[in-house]
Design brief:
Layout: H1 4-33, H2 42-61, H3 79-100, H4 105-126, H5 130-152, H6 158-172, H7 176-199, H8 211-235
Helix pairs in contact: 1-2, 1-3, 1-4, 2-3, 3-4, 3-8, 4-6, 5-6, 5-7, 6-7, 6-8, 7-8
Length: about 240
Amino acid sequence: MSDPGSVALLVGAITVATNAIYLAIRGDHLRKQYPQAGLPSSLSLVWASLLLGTLPLWMGSHLDPSPGSLGDPSWGIGVVGVLSSVVTLGWLSLLIDARSRKLPSELTSLMAFEIFVSWFITLINVGFRIDGVLAPALGALLWLVPSFIGARTGQIGRGDVRLAPVLGFGLGTMSLMASVLGLLLAYLFAGIAALSLRRHGATIGHRFALGPFLYVGTWSSFAIGCLVPMLAPLTHG
């Protein structure tokens, strides 16, 4: 059995490189498909994703992957690879959704594939545990239900329904609590934005882009889950 921390970092690095290559190939297509987003050149998209991809790799290199720590398996079931995917693809998906109110299905699909592969590889490496399977599955379900209800009432688009369980599953690779926290933060931020829109004259049935809030809630939960154990040695002297 390989060292879980090394495997997680390797999967994360491969994910970052894969997404950089993907954006180099598909960047121009995305720019033409979503002209409202005002996307920069493909080269700029590649460099931005590579730069952002260093963050999850740096965080992963500073976390303890030993059994019983945040790294195995409540944290380490592919979380570096998962976070690498959510960061390097998510920022672009957020930008497009915020400006065009459309979530690119190809970005969501690629992210879903990468998250599943990262989780599966690390699960094999550290060994099967029921919580390493249930937490991502329950996380996906928790995120799916409110988005599905929102879609039925006409306030949330289908792109949000597809994205929500992907992010819920990704956070579940860290822990079920991380998934719950991310969901609460996402809808808290969305609620604040909705109240602001109401104050500016929007009606109750007004639709707005939920995707950016789903991403911000996800990133916030990941940041809290990763930074707390990193700062723990400092708080204990």
